[in-house]
Each structure stands twice: as C-alpha cells, then as structure tokens.
Amino acid sequence: MASSQTPMEDIMRQKITQALSPTALEIFNDSHLHAHHKAMKDTTSQETHFRVFITSAAFSSKMQPARHRMVYTLLKDELAAQGGIHALQLRTRTPEEDEKAQAKEAV
Amino acid sequence: MNPAMLSRTAFSAAGQALRPRRNPLLSSRFAALQKAFISSETRKAIDKAVGTAPVVLFMKGTPETPQCGFSRASIQILGLQGVNPQKFTAFNVLEDEELRQGIKEYSDWPTIPQLYVNNEFVGGTDIMMSMHQDGSLAKLLDEKDVLVEAEGSETSTPSP
Glutaredoxin domain: from which residue to which, for each copy (chain B) (predicted)? Predict the structure, then answer.
C-alpha cells in the first residue's frame, strides 16, 4: 500500500477518534494558505496548519479551555515536533451544542 | 530572568498598579504545572507579566504590526470589544524566546496568542472568537470593568 499523502492528518484523525469517540470530526488542512509565512521557511511539511471541528460527548460539562487542552494533550508530540503542527484551530462542541448551533445556522 | 526583560509593547499602561490576586498556580487544578520545566524565575517573571494589566495578551508581534494572523484576529476582537488601552498590555513573544517557551508551559497551552483577564487564563483565538460571537466575551470584559467608558457616561451633565 502506498504511504499516505496526509500522514499528519491521519495521526490526528486516529488519535482524536480513539480518545474522544467523536460523533462528528472534520479536519481541514489550511497549510497552503500559510506556506509563505516566515515561520514556515524551514519546513517542507504540507501539513502545518489545521482547522479541526470536533463534536463529542466527551466535552460535556467542560469549559472551552479544558476541551482544547484535551485535544492539545492528545496531539502533544505532533505540536512539539520540529516541522509538526504549527497552528491548530479548534471548534469543540458537545452533540447537544452542535444540534443547537446547526438549528441556529439553518434559520 | 528579570521581569523587566519581558518586552512590553505599545498600549501598555505605564504605572498600572499591580493587583496581585489569588495565584491560580496554587489551585489544585494547576498541580500538574508544577512539574513543568520552566524555572521558578521564568515563572515569577510571567506571573508578573500576567499581572501587568487587567487584560494581557501574549502575541506574536505588536498590536500595531502583528506577525501572525491569529494574533491579528485577537487584537481585532479586543478592539471591537472596546477594551480600554489603559487596562491592556501586549507582550511580544517573538522578542523573548524564554517567554515564548515559558508561557506555553505556564498556561499549559501550546499556542500563541493567549489571553489573560485579571490573571485568569481565558484562551486562544478560537475561544476569543466564539466568546466574541456568543456574547460571553463582552459580558466577561464588562464584569471585569476593562472596557472604555461608554460615551454617554463621559458627557455627564456639567456641574453648575
């Protein structure tokens, strides 16, 4: 089997899925929008900037910073690695919150 | 590290009184932090930085010339909210490598920018943005009394 074109995204998906059993998980790779940044001049990775939408019951009764920390902890190594994840945008919702938000957006 | 070495940028409120509050590092939920690697001097310097003003943003670049889109967005949000420049300080982590690494451990948060209000960690850009949108940031900033006075209240009736 050919090696994945998106190794970082695969790792993220695997770790988040395993730890948080999300009911919805969307990962967007925005790296191409940032490739010209000065901070990116020494990296060849195509997977540096991510936007991740996670809906999981594991976030219930947790404040936003706590939720983000859960994800940061999962991806600790990937965030710390040289040429790893440089920027990580998170949207963390519980299934109930997601339902409400979607109802609102639909109006 | 001398706290004075932490580079303060424009908007900083000169002579803003330090109002040390309950040290969040003493609370049990930060117990894990005590295992962190940053030196106690760095920690003290950051303690002091966090307490420089009621609203403190650790960012890349300066409010006038942010060096990162997320830092730029954070400054824009604080501006839209009407944060009083007298009650605001920004620290440019790009000017101080010790601060740049130290603040990540201090806050247990791996990315910049980071917002503190009254010594309490609030979050990064995503959290600021969602709080901006759902109104909770306005509520928080209003409760902490860090917004510019509404124009109406300044043009009070002249005294006779």
Answer: 55-122
Look up the pTM and report it. 0.78
Instruction: Please give the residue range of the domain that contains residue A64.
Output: 7-31+48-106
- Taking alpha carbons only, the member of B125, B122, B121, B102 closest to residue B112 is B125
Q: In this structure, which amino acid lies at residue A84?
A: G
Range in A18-22, B36-40, B121-125 the model is least confident about:
B36-40
Contact flag B110-A38 (C-beta cutoff 8 Å): no
The CA distance from A99 to A38, in Å, is: 39
For residue A16, give the CATH number of its domain. 3.30.300.90
**Contact between A87 and B70 (Cβ < 8 Å):** yes
Q: 């936007």: which residue's tokens?
A: A51
| Domains of chain B (ranges, CATH numbers) | 3-145 (3.40.30.10)
Whether the CB of A17 is below 8 Å from some CB of chain B: the reply is no
Does residue A87 lie in a domain region? Answer: yes
In the numeric block, which tokens belong to residue B23?
Answer: 């040290």
Single out the residue of B61, B132, B124, B32 nearest to residue A79, CA to CA.
B124
**CA B61-B63-B68 angle, 5° bins:** 40
List pLDDT tens digits, range B59-96: 999 999 999 999 999 999 999 999 999 999 999 999 99
Q: Measured at the alpha carbon of residue B24, what is the angle toward residues B5 and B122, in degrees to the nearest 5? A: 80
Nearest to B127 among A39, A68, A87 (CB): A68
Site from B108, B111, B115 to mutate, A interface, most A CB atoms within 10 angstroms: B111
